[in-house]
Amino acid sequence: MRFAEFIERCHAEWPEFDDRGRLEKSRSPQNRDLANVLADVPGMATENKLKLLNLAVASLEPDEVYVEVGCYKGASLVGAALGNSAHRMFACDNFSQFDGAAESLQQTLRQYTPPGQVQFFDMDFREFLQKAPWQPARIGAYFYDGGHSFEDQYDGLRCALPHFSADAVIIVDDTNKRAARAADSLIARQVRGFELVLNLRTPRNHHPTWWNGIQMLRYRRQGEPDLAGLGGPSFAVRKFIYDDVFLNLKHRRRALRREIKEWWRNR
User: What crossing angle do the helices spanning 232-239 and 150-158 adopt, rounded to 10°?
Assistant: First the structure.
């Protein structure tokens, strides 16, 4: 990743890039060339996010690839790909939360990306990252938008870690969620070389600025990462709090609300 070039491009699109408060409120980049993507492709994204991904791909070295986890119907993939046909892209989704999205994604890729630029894999992200079909290339830009439980988010970085290039950019979606931020923070403390570059929050989900929050990290490899040192008591405690307690309670509340609505309709 040509990181200095990437940041220079970001400043050109968002003159307020170094001012977190103003950047969080920005509705769009200077160049609105990706606005039509969201008009044509249903997605959970904003112009800002698509442009950030697009600039990251444009700044890759020739031997680096873009990897995406969690594609839905392909808006983020198309946004990242447009104008960047020289760079290879790899993505996965198992559509566990979105029935019927698989065919829409394939249609989107056929319509908006040249043959061979994007290789998509219908599988769990852990299996995908273990297979690493882009090898021997390295990941220069990584977008994680898979499950955002604490464990999923942590594994989304842990499993990708061996494949990052010497200087890589990691963009994580939906970081309004505490579990996602906590997982990013923990792995950044456990592995040398991570730097939090952006930590943008939004007032709510579906917000027109940065949707549901976004974080961007820079990873500069300092030797081979010590994967054996990951996890441990810090991981176990946080997983228990965020997943076993809070996430479980959230699922129970949703189920109860559905039961109440069903009872009210049938009363």
Answer: 150
Q: Both 16 and 96 in a single domain?
A: yes
Q: Which of 148, 192, 133, 144 is nearest to 171 (CA)?
A: 144
Which tokens is 187 given?
Answer: 């792995």
Q: In this structure, are 200 and 181 located in the same domain?
A: yes
Rounded CA separation 193/204 (Å): 31
* Residue span of the structural domain in which 28 resides: 3-230
Domain co-membership, 21 together with 45: yes
Structure token pair of residue 69:
């986890």
Taking only the tens place, the pLDDT of each residue in 58-114 is: 999 999 999 999 999 899 999 999 999 999 999 999 986 666 578 889 999 999 999
Domain count along the chain: 2
Both 152 and 263 in one domain: the answer is: no
Structure tokens at 16: 């307020």
CA distances in angstroms from 80 to 10, 90, 192, 256, listed in the order given = 14, 11, 28, 39
